[in-house]
Amino acid sequence: MGMKMKKVAWLGLLAAITLVPGAAAASSAKIRLYPDRVDIGAFFQGVEITLQGEIPQGAEAVVEIQGTATQQELLRKGRRGGLWMTVGEIRVENAPNLYLLLSSTPHVPQLNGQEPPWGFSALRSRINFRGALQDQEKDRFFQEFLKLKKSEELYCALPGALKTSNSPGGQMAFKGACPLPAKVPPGHYQVRLYVIKDGKVLEQKNEELVVKMVGFPALLATLAYNHGAFYGVLAVLIAIAMGFIMGFLFKGKAEH
Amino acid sequence: MWTLYLPIAGNSINILLLFGLGAAVGFLSGLFGVGGGFLMTPLLIMAGIPSTVAAASDSNQIVAASTSGTFAHYRMGNVDFKMGILLLVGGVVGGTLGVQLIKVLVALGNADFVIKITYVVMLGVVGFYMFLESLQSLRKKAVVVAKRPETGRSSAYARAIQALPWQMQFEKSGVTFSALVPLILGTLVGILAAIMGVGGGFIMVPVMVYLLRMPMHVVVGTSLFQILFTCINVTIMQSITNHTVDLVLALILLVGSTLGAQVGAKLSRRLKADQLKILLASIVLLVMVQILVSLVLPPKLLLGFKGGH
């Protein structure tokens, strides 16, 4: 009986697609980023990425921007003898170094009968906590981890940030701005658009955002990471030279 | 406008803010002969710099400030090189011992407790003693010119340091005692400094004043000379092992701090030794209270980043 119903539904959907020309285009949602390449130069102070695209009429959009999964060692604070201090280390595994979420609805859309692959609760199931904590404390420390990341502006949920409007092709256009903080680590970021209708994912589109250090910061970072000893000596020499120069300048001033 | 990207810290920051921070801490450095790491690093972390980068870049900055300060004090005849080198040798030995001690403490699982308590106790004892002593002598001078009565304990200490072998005369400081004294005291300060993760200037200064009986002005110059070498070592080591020195950050800070250090050194010449001591004692006590408060009040977050002082 259930199978039959499903079949009918599928046939209906197929008919709708073939009958309504506008709906045929619905199978290709689009997303574009402006810019899709971010250069970190000497004066970089974060940037706003504009997300633009199209989804079928009546659908909802969720856009996820996430970086590579990393492992991070954090310190757990606790109370010992009435005083607050570090009581152990917690290793956070498989957490993306950046996680931004935008949606076209005032609340982050959910799916019927299953957990959506987006949002902080989806992150919770992916991230592992090891070290100085018990199993039942993991939810609490996930919340603490979120707070820490949000305070750094590296994790952020912006429901309703994508504004929709009717587009000429019978589709719905969406547009939204997403702040990329100055702290964004250089790397490749996956941008994923989910198209949701009636509690189901209709479609998924992937794009890439590249963040790269260029110019002076890139040169300095290369020196620091690949030629540490030279970089250290250089830093010391510059500091000593500056100390002496300032000393001489002041001596000159004092004598006048 | 006025913001620069710091490639190692991985964040952008206002240049004027950094310059101001540098100038303020450099001023204290030139005035009291402390590196100022115990003030600068927490301030940088508050400004959004990762703690490991803040601590390492700060030592690079201190190299510049203490060069500038040592140079200024040297011209005024305030650096006792002989004493400084002996303290430095002791400091290096103590630093190495201290790092091993921390490894043991970390393995035992209560490193942070020991570090925090050492901090509060050291700062508290040093601050209170210096504060009371200088207050007393300021008052005495105002009432009647009288020689400070030597207590039995300190004369025993004086006899002990006179009894040690390798007696040496330190002309600049105007004292004569065994070369072992600065070596041993340098080692002790080095151990404490390594445990607390700081340069140790604010422990070294009181040690020089009260245990080595050096005149305050020579103390400031000599302490800066010693800090210079400690921080050169730290900067190069951090660059090689952790890649945490941000040259852009250090450069902006050091422009401010070298300027501040010159002004501080000039002012230290004008102030009386007791006034200098009481000011330093107040700052040390303030820092102690701040740490104590952070120990007593619950933190905003139960998770924190590793590294830093």
Descriptive overview:
The complex is a heterodimer of chains A (256) and B (309). Chain A has helices at 2-19, 21-24, 120-126, 138-151, 215-226, 228-255, and strands spanning 30-34, 37-40, 47-55, 60-66, 69-80, 83-96, 99-103, 128-131, 155-158, 163-166, 172-180, 187-197, 200-213. By secondary structure, chain A is an alpha+beta fold. In chain A, strands 2-13-12-4-7-9 form a 6-stranded mixed sheet. In chain A, α5 (215-226) crosses α6 (228-255). Chain A is flat and about 75 Å long. Residues 14-26 of chain A have low confidence and may be disordered. Chain B is built from 11 helices and 5 strands, in the order ββααααααββαααααβ. Chain B has a two-stranded antiparallel ribbon with strand order 1-2. In chain B, strands 3-4 form a two-stranded antiparallel sheet. In chain B, α3 (51-75) packs antiparallel against α9 (216-241), α4 packs across α7 and α4 (81-108) packs across α9. β5 (69-80) of chain A pairs antiparallel with β5 of chain B.
Brief summary:
Chain A has 256 residues and is an alpha+beta fold. In chain A, 32% of the residues lie in helices and 40% in strands. Chain A contains six helices and 13 strands.
Percent of residues in β-strands of chain A: 35-45%
Mean pLDDT of chain A comes to 86
**How large, in whole angstroms, is the Cα Rg of chain A?**
25 Å
Shape of chain A: flat
- Measured as a percent range, the helix fraction of chain A is 25-40%
Please, what is the oligomeric state? Answer: heterodimer
SSE class of chain A: alpha+beta
Largest interface: A-B, 63 and 60 residues
Q: Low-confidence segments of chain B, ≥5 residues, pLDDT <50?
A: 144-152
Kindly state the percentage of residues in helix of chain B: over 70%
Biggest sheet layout of chain A: 6 strands, mixed
User: Looking across the biggest beta sheet of chain B, what order are the strands in?
Assistant: 1-2
Binned strand content of chain B: 5-15%
Q: Total helix count of chain A?
A: 6
Distance between the termini of chain B: 31 Å
Overall average pLDDT of chain B: 81
SS class of chain B? mainly alpha
Main sheet: strands, sense, barrel of chain B: 2 strands, antiparallel
Q: Quick one: how many beta strands of chain B?
A: 5
Could you give the distance between the termini of chain A? 101 Å
